[in-house]
Amino acid sequence: MNLQPAPLAAPLATTAPPTPLREFLAFKLGSEEYGIDILRVQEIRSYDKPTRIANAPDFIKGVINLRGMIVPIVDMRLKLKLAQASYDPFTVVIVLNVGARVVGMVVDAVSDVITLAPEQLRPVPELDVGPAAEHLLAIGTVDDRMLILVDIAKLLSGAEIGLAEATLQ
Question: What CATH architecture does domain 22-117+145-168 belong to?
Answer without folding.
Answer: Beta Barrel (2.40)
